[in-house]
Fold this protein.
Amino acid sequence: MPIVVPKFGIDYFTLYIYRKNAIKMNAQKNKITIDDSSIRRSAEIAKALGHPARIAILKILAERSTCFCGDITEILPLAQSTVSQHLKALKSAGLITGEVEGVRTCYCLNPEGVRELQLQLSELSNELIKTCC
């Protein structure tokens, strides 16, 4: 939404208040709230993707046509406890699944979670592109 500034000049504080109110009015018009389940889910997925190690883990799992039952620390230079925390975050977000097989846990990409990731990011980026670019 372009902001029209009067020719007689305006200070930055007034411009800031004007923009803030314009954004608030637009948000109220569209009824955008942080309590929206889609917004919360997008944030949850984004948080799960918020560390390079998690992206690397997803790529490791994507390279395999089957579940990965090995030790990810043999591939990534991270401590086992660190990898476990990253796996827990990805699993909590629904992006991977973990099945216990004996003394090992086998991890796989969760197809439903990956589709949801694609949908959430696609919808968000489409909304952003419509308004800015």
User: Anything to note?
Assistant: The radius of gyration is 21 Å. The helical segments are 12-30, 37-48, 52-63, 80-92, 111-132. The CA atoms of residues 13 and 19 lie 10 Å apart.
